Amino acid sequence: MTASAGSVVRWVGSHWLAVAGTSFLIFGLGVVLPVAYSAPLLLRIRRSARPPLGLPTLADAAIDVVIPAYLEASVIGRKVRSAQAAVAQHGPKSRVIVVASDEPTAEAARTAGADLVIETDHQGKPTAVNLGVAQANAEIVVITDANCDVEPPEWPAIIRRELETAGLVSAHKVEKGGRESFFWKYERFVKEHQGGESLGVVGEFIALRRAEFRPIPAGEIVDDLWLALEIASHGRRVRISDHIRTVEEPARQRDQWERRVRIAEGMLGQHLPRLGRYLSFASGRRFSVHKFFRLTIGCAAFWAGTGAVALAIPIVTLPVAVLVTAYAVSRYSGILWPDRGLLPVTTAFAMQAIPIVAGFRLLKNRIRRRQSVGWVKVSR
């Protein structure tokens, strides 16, 4: 340790309470700011109705459902049948299109009676979505995952109505008996407080006019956010419907960890460099306060506060901080006892470790010049 670094450590150790208090206050702002920043918007939305887009009515529009599926042989049949039942009321022009990146999933989709099955190599979800939408001919396209249920069954009528005043409509996400119910409740609260106008879409369900779809670049990791950004940055409304939700079984803890690290990698490596674009329009600024603050300033403040506490009495508090962090990350990532419930403090520590791990992976991939195919899946 250099002399200057040692001086910093000693200063933090002697002022640990002030440093920790300030740091955790900044961290807490990441929870409060998304709500506080959106309050004026909510008031405006409540006081005035949104003007129509001036586009043709969608009252009789057909809907094509595109399901990109990889290693989904056990669930694709149910998804195909439920999607067909939902869009059946909209006439014979509505279809269910499955883009299968493995043969068992393709065969299961054919057996279930999908209107069109496109079998392709595993090239990532963006490529699969692009292939499916290219074959769609309905005015409305819905992109949805194979492993989730969409509720209520009347969702086609809802999106036809909501796309009259929005460029893209998504849903709220629910995990059955999930260990992160508080996280999803908070996310829903923020989106509702923003009057439903949010770029925080879920890839499990996205609906838009086919004419407004733009092919997703093959290397995009957070492909659903890329679509939302494309729509919103061109002046169109991105809406999270209050009436539609996706429901799915919670992923195993190890899979959940990998998914979150991967999303953080995409946010830091691909979307943070686009910050100027986000800041150029209102919903982009709200998203930045919500997500980018949490991944960068909020995360840094959390570890600064934790470090200050660790240096309070180094011989005691430092080992405790290291052990708590190691335990939390090991538990959350599924290495230790993945079937047991998680304590809030465990989740808090582990989720703040995700941007750090994502940053290291991003750096490693760039050094090795590796490009992600944008889709890591678990066989179902």
Relative strand content: 5-15%
Question: Which term fits the overall shape?
Answer: globular
- Number of separate strands: 8
- Alpha plus pi helix count: 13
Rounded radius of gyration (Å): 22 Å
Structure, described:
With 380 residues, this protein is an alpha/beta fold. The protein has a domain at 63-252: Spore Coat Polysaccharide Biosynthesis Protein SpsA, Chain A. The chain has helices at 3-14, 16-47, 76-87, 103-112, 125-135, 155-162, 181-193, 223-232, 253-271, 275-278, 282-310, 314-332, 344-368, and strands spanning 63-69, 95-100, 116-119, 140-144, 149-151, 168-175, 205-209, 238-248. An eight-stranded mixed β-sheet has the order 3-2-1-4-7-6-8-5, with helices on both faces. The longest helix has 32 residues, at 16-47. The radius of gyration is 22 Å and the shape is globular. The model is unreliable at 45-53 (pLDDT under 50).
Summarize the structure.
With 380 residues, this protein is α/β, with parallel strands linked by helices. It has helices at residues 3-14, 16-47, 76-87, 103-112, 125-135, 155-162, 181-193, 223-232, 253-271, 275-278, 282-310, 314-332, 344-368, and strands at residues 63-69, 95-100, 116-119, 140-144, 149-151, 168-175, 205-209, 238-248. The chain has a domain at 63-252: Spore Coat Polysaccharide Biosynthesis Protein SpsA, Chain A (Alpha-Beta Complex), CATH 3.90.550.10.
